[in-house]
Amino acid sequence: MPYLTEPEFRHDRPARTGVLLVNLGTPEAPTAKALRPYLKEFLSDRRVIEIPRAVWWFVLNGVILNVRPKKSAEKYATIWQTEGSPLLVHTREQTRLLAEQLGQRGHGDLVVDFAMRYGAPSVESVIQTMRARGVDRLVVLPLYPQYAASSSGTALDAVFRTLMKLRNMPEVRTVRHFHDHPGYIAALAGKIRAHWQAHGRPDKLVMSFHGVPRFTLDKGDPYHCECHVTGRLLAEALGLSRDDYAVCFQSRFGRAEWLKPYAFDVLRELGRARTRRVDVVCPGFVSDCLETLEEIAVEGKEVFLTAGGGDYRYIDCLNEAPDAIAILADIVEAQLAGWTRAQPDTAARLARARALGAAG
Ligand SMILES: C=CC1=C(C)c2cc3[nH]c(cc4nc(cc5[nH]c(cc1n2)c(C)c5CCC(=O)O)C(CCC(=O)O)=C4C)c(C)c3C=C
Ligand SMILES: [Fe+2]
Ligand SMILES: [Fe+2]
């Protein structure tokens, strides 16, 4: 196997640590032309589609890639921002803010960057750039609170596949999940409480998580349980009783059974029951994206209102909220133990030197 090009080994170079955030990836434009290669790469991933290759090849190339790019592009067009796809815009900004936050905590020497599992920037290209910058220790943080083989698992596959191509492998630490991280739960609860302070409380809080095929639960994927743990902890933090909230799963793909209850079924039922108001939150997504801004904020609302529901409010993801960035920094810092020690930041060092100078 040919190795990737590497920087020359030098004895005198100090160890350098990189922090790699990995998100899903998104098309380059809201057009069928851009959707096609994105969907092809995504839906060719064996972690995502587990049916036999030969059968799937015909379904994907014969049906899905002829129909879905156009339909999905129309949806992306409704949420597209001037700077690009919301998922990319948020991930880029979160990375910048995380680097800043880690710098303020004395870790200004870290190389912090993000990569996308599908599309650009690819995991391989970002790890190669980090190696060129001298990174030989790597913390990998997939941006999914709950572990699923089809999200975090495949993000880590991409990292390990790249490492297989390196002659001089960095040390690696990976984050599996943060679904029950007290800071993550507190940040979600804080966001919801702030929303309620501004708009009053709903009759029901709907917590909608991205779905996965039902058989993955039977085969040992912890995703379903981790979503329910997040839901329960969030309800506890908000002081909700079992009747005050519902956990459900969205974005079903294909005809197979997915995790239930389906979000649209729950919203339809709540509408039919003439529920006066629901608030919907998506605690399985760190960043707003197509699945939250279009499927939940727009389509979900339509389902609820058409069925007879009253008021529907979507509560944004944490995105760039300072407490969300602080949690990512906490998670990274926990992984740095024994690798790097926080250095007082430059401003603090200068202030101390000045104070010492004045004293002397
Ligand atoms: C939150 C974690 C996610 C899991 C688990 C997940 C599983 C999963 N997804 C698909 C199929 C599609 N998902 C699509 C979009 C999409 N999915 C996630 C997250 C998870 N997916 C996000 C954040 C996004 C949004 C990306 C964006 O650009 O905003 C899409 C593409 C859009 C579309 O055509 O509908 C597909 C397809 C499967 C099959 C699956 C588990 C097996
Ligand atoms: Fe998905
Ligand atoms: Fe479970």
UniProtKB/TrEMBL annotation:
Q: State the Pfam families in the record.
A: Ferrochelatase
Its Gene Ontology molecular function terms?
ferrochelatase activity; metal ion binding
The entry's protein name is: Ferrochelatase
Catalysed reaction(s) here are: Fe-coproporphyrin III + 2 H(+) = coproporphyrin III + Fe(2+); heme b + 2 H(+) = protoporphyrin IX + Fe(2+)
Organism the protein comes from: Crenobacter luteus
Q: In which pathway does it act?
A: Porphyrin-containing compound metabolism; protoheme biosynthesis; protoheme from protoporphyrin-IX: step 1/1
User: PANTHER family from the entry?
Assistant: FERROCHELATASE (PTHR11108), FERROCHELATASE, MITOCHONDRIAL (PTHR11108:SF1)
| InterPro entries the UniProt entry points to | Ferrochelatase, Ferrochelatase_AS, Ferrochelatase_C, Ferrochelatase_N
Similarity comment: Belongs to the ferrochelatase family.
Keyword Zinc-finger appears in the UniProt entry: no
| Alphabetized NCBIfam families for the sequence | hemH
Q: Where in the cell is it found?
A: Cytoplasm
**Which of the seven top EC classes does this enzyme belong to?**
lyase
- Quick one: a GO biological-process term for this protein? heme biosynthetic process
Keyword list (alphabetical) reads: Cytoplasm, Heme biosynthesis, Iron, Lyase, Metal-binding, Porphyrin biosynthesis
Q: Which domain of life is it from?
A: Bacteria
